[in-house]
Amino acid sequence: MKKLNHTVLFLILATQVLSAQSTESLKIRKQTQQNAKVIIREFTDFLKIPNVAANPISLRENANFIMGMMTNKGINNVQLLEGKTEDTTPAVYGEVLVPGAKQTLIFYAHYDGQPVNPAQWDKKLTPFTPQLFTASLDKNGTSIPFPQDGKYNGEWRIYARGASDDKAGVDAILNAYDAIKKSGLKPTYNLKFFFEGEEEEGSTHLDAILEKNAKLLTSDLWIICDGPVHQSGKKQLYLGVRGDTNLDLTVYASKRPLHSGHYGNWAPNPAMMLAELLASMKEDDGRVSIKGFYDDVIPLSPSEKAALLEVPSVDAQMKTELGMGNPEMKDISLSEAINLPSLNINGIQSGNVGKMASNQIPTTATAVLDLRLVLGNDWKRQQQKVIDHIKGQGYFVTTNDPTDQERATYPKIIKIIANPNGINAQRTSMDLPIIKKVIAAVKATTNDQVVLQPTMGGSLPLYLFEKYLKANTISVPIANHDNNQHAENENIRLQNLFDGIETMGSLMLLK
Amino acid sequence: MKKLNHTVLFLILATQVLSAQSTESLKIRKQTQQNAKVIIREFTDFLKIPNVAANPISLRENANFIMGMMTNKGINNVQLLEGKTEDTTPAVYGEVLVPGAKQTLIFYAHYDGQPVNPAQWDKKLTPFTPQLFTASLDKNGTSIPFPQDGKYNGEWRIYARGASDDKAGVDAILNAYDAIKKSGLKPTYNLKFFFEGEEEEGSTHLDAILEKNAKLLTSDLWIICDGPVHQSGKKQLYLGVRGDTNLDLTVYASKRPLHSGHYGNWAPNPAMMLAELLASMKEDDGRVSIKGFYDDVIPLSPSEKAALLEVPSVDAQMKTELGMGNPEMKDISLSEAINLPSLNINGIQSGNVGKMASNQIPTTATAVLDLRLVLGNDWKRQQQKVIDHIKGQGYFVTTNDPTDQERATYPKIIKIIANPNGINAQRTSMDLPIIKKVIAAVKATTNDQVVLQPTMGGSLPLYLFEKYLKANTISVPIANHDNNQHAENENIRLQNLFDGIETMGSLMLLK
């Protein structure tokens, strides 16, 4: 009786799976399972090559390794795309042109990783020696050898720098193409591949590479494979990114540090002045009180608003995981919050705390502000709103240390270094026909919800693709949310890698 | 005609001087002038002995040197006063008991100095190699040899660690006794001498020394010779000191640093929380807004209020010198400000600024507060007022890093480490007969105003003299205000040393 029930349950589940997932998607999955041993061996070889900016020679080794992968998989016209000169880290390009195809998809991932401090990694780990664990270290995963039979449990994890961010992206894209080819599936779009090597360094030469190779890189859509899936484990698509810029503020008080006894109460305290200035920038309910801060914002479209309502709430889960108090803005959800411009204090410093503290009135107080922008905001205009607010608080604003003359003239002086670089937000409409097809294709790989996010909270220079190529973009992340990207103990959950191959393969078969 | 005028002018001035200054004072001055070569040679020998806490052996050498000075000058019962054990730095004691005297004065100075960082000193200087300059370095003074004829210009300066703070005090006291003795002047009070060796280290063992030697140290008044004269150059007397204590505050947000893009606007920012909390502690007019902060304050007496009105204003001079804006409290003078309790931010820190800054939401934000107290304030009660204010701002207050349970329970969490040590303020009444005599004696050494300050802004553990000896105290500083005490390039203006000898000598002749 018990056995029968199980069998019945299995059949019901299988039916549900089949009803939600396309035959093509399942073929890619099967092919990936059969090829798992080769895929993982190639992936670990890839992870063994250090990929940090401090070591540009090894970044070129990564690029060469990727060219080899592409050539092996039958991708054509494989080449390095250099910036203005050849002393910067190149992107890797390849293509599969489909006879008769009128449209082109271009798949993006990056092969460079964040810097590593091995001392911060778990003692069992070495950043560029990939290792297999039965689960995450947090959940007491144990180290096991890579299996000889090619049978992998989806919950297992590979630990190494770049395992998720973003060599998993490179690997998923290339193995997706390999799987559709080996499964006899035929793309109807031209496929192009673009793997960047300077993403973690701020994409310093991406503009030059795009501008120089604009014709080669013509496409109808960039598919950005980077970042994690939803915290709930569901697949998700990002239609945009927030923009970003910074301001450095320094408030000036006395020229020399003063004894807090002999002058305390009388001489102005720059830390208190800065505290009051920063506090003036937010209302009691956490909203930014700077005049016009929320102006310029282009409201979400009906489709985007509808999508936002469908985003599963992870607020309670994240509050517990982070041990944090109430959200900064009253009654706001995480997904609502990231669709608004933000003002964040990255750091603040004046005098000394801890063992170096002394009873003094410091001479200056400094804060670094991070401004995130949404569609409609202009990063220079947003900086100016903050500067105008500070002027409204009675400050004389300068971009240098104040002169004696300025000190004698103005009671309140602040130096503001507005970052000369900024990124505007980017958002692709959910209503574009090609975007609707992408959403449908990803939905066809899962029987679970696909989370549609109008924007991610973070920033990527996607405006460069708009600027130099007039191209649309969509981000299709594949890594597990707890992958420790940018930090120690980076890892990829194997099922996320396998699911990622399936997702990318399905997108390559867009109709 | 011209010559005649000058002569007349001289006679008028000389008459004015004579009318204000006592014959005894002038005798001490004459004796000091005659003995200047010996005094300066002994002083420079004294300054050559390093006197920093890092070198306790050389501190004992200083103590031995002082014992030699005292014995040479005919002071009796010279001895070291040890703390509970002999591994701490001793005080040096001596006395001159006057037959028939019913009252006793005890003269205090300290022989230890602040730490030195020779790299921060002017290249022409070495901290423990005293050198003579024609003026202060700021005013382009040049190095000259010590004159063989013993003729010193009062504007010349000796540069060395301890030159003003406070070996000048030791030197002025001992040479004052030498001068009155050599001038045939007779004290009517018993005279005692007490030279501390741990003042710059926080007088860590002063309580033990006072308690252990309470009987030996019996007196009617402690005369504390430390610190600078008024910024105007006038002599001044301090009747008290502010008290002092500290609080370390740490506000907690998320357990791990967060990406300011993915979580900015949603996750609470501890730097902003701390800024808002600190800003809540002051009114717009700069007054502390913490409930009851100015309660407990014992108002100044009529004499003290009258004295305060007579303090020459240095506000405009100091504002220019410090290049500062308006005073923290609206429409307040420096001398009024130091007669109120204060709340000062010594330091504040969260995340990073400058090159280490990154787009993150920090996990914590820390500030160190310094509370200065006036008579009537109790340091523990003053700490509690701040703690209660913070609770009133919705914070859960803990003395440890918060537990997960506390994080889940309280939206706003702060760790407060209230310094377990504090000093209450001390103020001696200007109306005591012995204080009136001291004021009169100092006035008799000058034809200029003597500035009477009810309190100094800084803190000294004068409450210890009250606690262990039930003793009254008065501070009689002698150094020039621009002596760079506690910093590099410490110096004494010679006229301040000579005037100091005259002041101390006149006090030893109190009637």
UniProtKB/TrEMBL annotation, chains A, B:
Cross-referenced InterPro entries: Cyt/Met_Dipeptidase (IPR051458), Peptidase_M20 (IPR002933), Peptidase_M20_dimer (IPR011650)
Segments passing through the bilayer: none
Keyword Thylakoid: no
Domain Peptidase M20 dimerisation per the UniProt entry, residue ranges: 251-391
Annotated signal sequence range: 1-20
One Pfam family hit: Peptidase_M20
Protein name: M20/M25/M40 family metallo-hydrolase
Species: Flavobacterium muglaense
